[in-house]
Amino acid sequence: MKGAVETLVADAMQLSHDQRLTLAHRILSSVEPMPSGANNEAWDVEIQGRIARFDAGETRAIPAAEVFADLDRRLRR
User: Fold this and answer.
1) What is the pLDDT tens value at each position of the chain, 77 positions in all?
2) Domain range annotation of the chain
3) How many Å separate Cα 16 from the centre of its chain?
4) pTM for this one?
5) 61 with 54: CB under 8 angstroms?
């Protein structure tokens, strides 16, 4: 199996940039779970709650640069 993967990778590296992106997208899409109505509804409720808390001043926005810097610090440990 490892040899097959290495052969596929070598072949994929011969593709153009756009073709590699398309291939990567198709492969990743093939292993992502199918969205369910229950999950979508739960996320809608969560998003609405987060927006309401933000609008009420209960939470604050954190700049992306700060979030990623914090993640970098945590992952270096």
Assistant:
1) 779 999 999 999 999 999 999 999 999 999 988 878 889 999 999 999 999 999 999 999 999 999 999 999 999 97
2) 2-31, 37-76
3) 23
4) 0.49
5) yes
